[in-house]
Amino acid sequence: MSDVRLSQIIEELGGELLGSGELRVSRIGPLEGADASTLSFLAHARYQSQLQSTGAGCVIVAPAFREAAAARGAAIVTPDPYLYFARLTQWWAARTRPARPAGRHPTAVVSELARIGDGVRIEAHAVVEEGAVLGDGVTVGAHGFIGAGVVVGAGTRLAPRVSLMPGTRLGERCVLHSGVVIGADGFGFAPNEGRWEKIEQLGGVSIGNDVEIGANSCVDRGALDDTVIEDGVKLDNLVQIAHNVHIGAHTAMAGCVGVAGSARIGRHCTVGGGAGILGHLTIADHVHISSMSLVTRSLLQPGLYSGVFPIDENAAWEKNAATLRQLHKLRERVRALEKKTTP
Amino acid sequence: MSDVRLSQIIEELGGELLGSGELRVSRIGPLEGADASTLSFLAHARYQSQLQSTGAGCVIVAPAFREAAAARGAAIVTPDPYLYFARLTQWWAARTRPARPAGRHPTAVVSELARIGDGVRIEAHAVVEEGAVLGDGVTVGAHGFIGAGVVVGAGTRLAPRVSLMPGTRLGERCVLHSGVVIGADGFGFAPNEGRWEKIEQLGGVSIGNDVEIGANSCVDRGALDDTVIEDGVKLDNLVQIAHNVHIGAHTAMAGCVGVAGSARIGRHCTVGGGAGILGHLTIADHVHISSMSLVTRSLLQPGLYSGVFPIDENAAWEKNAATLRQLHKLRERVRALEKKTTP
Amino acid sequence: MSDVRLSQIIEELGGELLGSGELRVSRIGPLEGADASTLSFLAHARYQSQLQSTGAGCVIVAPAFREAAAARGAAIVTPDPYLYFARLTQWWAARTRPARPAGRHPTAVVSELARIGDGVRIEAHAVVEEGAVLGDGVTVGAHGFIGAGVVVGAGTRLAPRVSLMPGTRLGERCVLHSGVVIGADGFGFAPNEGRWEKIEQLGGVSIGNDVEIGANSCVDRGALDDTVIEDGVKLDNLVQIAHNVHIGAHTAMAGCVGVAGSARIGRHCTVGGGAGILGHLTIADHVHISSMSLVTRSLLQPGLYSGVFPIDENAAWEKNAATLRQLHKLRERVRALEKKTTP
User: Fold this and answer.
1) Which molecular-function annotations from GO does this UniProt entry contain (chains A, B, C) (predicted)?
2) A92 and A192 share a domain?
């Protein structure tokens, strides 16, 4: 992780440099706590005050902050500093993380009936079953399980310990983190005299390109048709996607979200951590759901939706919660008063 | 997955056939989007309108829809179409999924002190420790971990990457999906001058027959006695069952449910996704809990219980939530008004 | 698990014995259901009535219950019976669980560039990459993955199937249960014309001493700086800790808790099961959060905080929830009434 000259960064990522291209930085860091070797960024105007106090060697700023930045030292001016920062991290990671060569670890168990592309890396103790197809440049992490007939698109990277059950099709350039399970059975049972009769899940899972799925998240196979996740979807850790859910492109869900069966979620939505979406609902494009809210009805208009009991000191909460249980009666009492006071 | 004649299905699963037994179907699918090669089903009267519009080659219906179904083409008449459908999926899966032979993969590490039944399949890289007992026909998926002394009943199927820690006893014909952890330590600590002193968890986990547990779900070992899951219980993905919980037979819990320590849950209950049950509570048989509700007291009567803030457009939610924090005062104001207006 | 004399226990753990040291017990168990071979304990005064009815051979009690305990049989008197019980379980577990010898299973894949301390146990199919450092007495369970450069402190025990991604540093005497993932990428993306641009996560995870993390829980690596978990923190199962969270020493979180990015949580806090904490908030020391409450603002004073809709019979809930959606209007109606009735 040797340091780099600012001119190198500009060469790679563009932007307008204020100050000397010979200046060197050795880390990327937040404005607060930055020193002369740190390259930092001002993502939001609300952190503007930190621009004066930071010790960062160079700061990435929007054109509106050109003067303020120049007054304090080196800067990179770019229309969207946060996006520039994102690309900088990508370049930085590629530069500093050791390249991992293609090849098959001798302990990996790879079926002769699997089709393995060029430049594929299969790590220790991974299992690739018959009929699986791994596109060019795929990485299967240690202890990965790639079931029979599974298709993994080119450039997709599976962290250690990912399970792709038979019936899974993954697109290109996806990233799946450790502990992810794709294609386990959906939760389907028919009631039968007080017992549950299993509905075998005959569908699969179809995942688009550029999808990222966080650690220990699950996407179940469909009952009859496929569960579908479109291009560019991002799921955080410990997310549960039930059978036959359909998630539109570029939707993002934070940690611990649960989506019940056959829900149909639009494109460009965001779902806050711990939120839930009931089964068979439809969510329009550009819907945003607050953390830990439960969606109990279809949301057909874009917008921000919330539903969570406000947190309070416990004593206050207890009083309000107790009153809430009588809320309907309270409304009736107000009605009675209204009648009484109306001549 | 070659096609089948309807007469074959009737032979296997019963039901009354309307139309020709020579008709062939090659897939099972929902009414919507079905074509002439699709066998579909009408599970609820509310989908009745789809019966006329579907292109399905054959539809499974209840006797009440015999005429309507016959008017449009082939049909199978049976008292409970959804149950028939469930059994059809089972037969279909058995027919179309390649049989996986018994045997032990050479990379599996199986203790000589384990007792392995007939027809057991142990997949690649699995570990079976000393004293473990695998009944006849058990499958241990790839990367499975079967701890010392664990007992797995006949016909139970463990997907790849399941951990059964020492002290676990599983019944017959269970299905555990990828990433399940049974028998990790319960969360027990005694406070000691601001620190936590570990309470070693000396109990185990006892799971009955025909239990299914979803991907990445956890059932902790008991502190002193066992955590108990009775016959026919179905747990979805990412469910957390704490130490010494007792779940009655044929209870089902949807994804992301959490049950705290020593809760005692009855038989034939259902728990909606993301719901929580506090510790040491008692839940009667036939209790149904809505998604994301928190059970804070014992529920001793059967019935449906709910407790979740209704979702709304964020602006409306904000106003109502702010008022909610003053709800107790609002009640007092109503009381004052009542006093004032009472002569 | 042969039985032990009470005098042995007193010798090991202290306490004052009432009755004969020759009395033998063979199990530890709750007061209810205990028999003459059971050593039990009275942890809370509220279980006092069970002291008379229990059949336990010996009961651990506080000094206040000395007489009542002596009147019924053998007892161990100690200032904090629950803490005594915790230590008893530790001694009991050490005595009854078979010691697992140090050594490296032949199927483990251990880099020659890893540094392995004395008395380390590496179980079957584990993977230890280059530059990893395992302190003395560490256990890496079966199928464990220890990424390049990861540091694991002395005496730390990893259950089977734990992933420590590169950039993770674990302290001494930690316990990580099966399925834990430390150091997966935090959930960071910059919006870019309706798509998400990945922010590579360049930070790591720093975990102190005596930390315990439950099954299938996740702690993400930091975006730029580290995610930090201080000494003595206890996390239950299926907990999600996002990037750059900081958890103060001796804080405990129950199952299914989710903490969003950059939240800063104090020392000696407790968080109930399923609760959520939004990003960038500050929580003071000694804050206690009720189960399934969502923390939406910083909590700078110690105390107990709650926010959850009270559960009720569904019919009652429906009425109250419907009224709640009109709560703001209800308040306005009360205001109008107040105006009207004020001369």
Assistant:
1) N-acyltransferase activity; UDP-3-O-[(3R)-3-hydroxyacyl]-glucosamine N-acyltransferase activity
2) no
